[in-house]
Amino acid sequence: MQINISNLSEGTYSYNFLEDPKNLAIEEVFQGPVAVSVTLEKSLNHLLLSVRASVKGIFICDRCADDFEETIETAFSSVYSWENDETAEEDDDYHIIAHDQNMIDISESVKEYLTIAVPLKHLCRRASCEIPLREAHNEDAIDPRWEKLKELKKQQRQ
Ligand SMILES: [Zn+2]
Questions:
Q1: 92 CA distance to ligand 1 centroid (A)?
Q2: Is the whole-model pTM more than 0.90?
Q3: From the CA of 24, how far away is ligand 1's center (Å)?
Q4: Which residues neighbour ligand 1 (ion) by CB within 5 Å?
Q5: pLDDT confidence of residue 83
Q6: What is the distance in A from the centroid of ligand 1 to the CA of 117?
Q7: Quick one: which of 30, 42, 74, 143 has the most CB atoms within 10 Å?
Q8: What's the confidence (pLDDT) of residue 130?
């Protein structure tokens, strides 16, 4: 996801990307295409990027253990500056660029922000979502207490 910044005059620009998660090496977590929209504000000494990204992933529900689809969204701002500001440290959101640099690549930032946007706990929020009753290993030796619980669950569903 590269943006050509050569010959940009001061002003506001928008860009949209639809990226294969494989190109960001996040295809193990996310399956859908990564949709990214960027608003770039160019001023004399820096570029301010406001980025929104979203992607679908298949996650395993922590309660019912079924897999389900969830859209992960993130939004962040990045500054790209031609001025080496002594007070600012270069980090994920502040980048120093050379005067002869024509392209900036936002792939790494998008990847990082999407990865940290994944919640630690996954809940499918389906009506049927419940902790599964443990299956008995041997049907003959089924614990009568489990049998009762199963009956109760059946009645609740009816
Ligand atoms: Zn669930």
A1: 34
A2: no
A3: 29
A4: 61, 63-64, 124, 129
A5: 78
A6: 20
A7: 30
A8: 87
